[in-house]
Amino acid sequence: CDGLDNDGDGEVDEGMSDVDGDGLCDDIDFETCDGVDNDGDGHVDEGYIDADGDGIADCVDDEECDGIDNDGDGSTDEGYPDTDKDGIADCVEVEECDGLDNDGDGLVDEGSPDTDLDGIKDCIDVEECDGLDNNGDGLVDEGFADTDGDGAADCIDVETCDGEDNNGDGVVDEGFADSDEDGIADCIDDEDDLPVDDTGDEDGGEGCGGCASGGSPQGAAWLLALAGLALVRRRRE
Asked: 30 with 38: CB under 8 angstroms?
């Protein structure tokens, strides 16, 4: 096997092993990167780059979706879907909490917390004024007005009778009794709760002990004083 027609029969190296069938006997053949054992040494494409180390030289390797440049073209997993367009193929992508389907499984942000169970993960959820921790930061309704400073935002606070505008509607103690109609609810009013009528009867009753009919306590007192003076004069006479 020397590449010559030694016996002059018009054929070169006839009868010698030629594994790849290229017309060159193995001893003088050179290994080329073609997936064949060109030189008959039992090895295929030896000496050629095998980037993914799978035993198949890059020149004949097919790109697989495995996070490796299988065919040695400088690109990884080319031709495979990359739903979130981050340069990492879905097959090897890990789902992140970013509002995208990173791994191409048709689900968005699966496995990430959704504290308020609204279908929007905490990482991208926006806090709403609803009494829930929408964005999972441990705070409820942060950033919304809390007029009375009780920790409950106005949007969900209930008006109580305490002299404060609990629900932030600009009105204080609305819906609670204000018997004397002075604009201050009875629960915090320091003065009499009932209006004084024209007879001087603060509780709105009909009777007034010692009052003359249609009169007032002051009128009855004057009558008693005059009667006393008349009695004193009679005794002196």
From this structure: yes
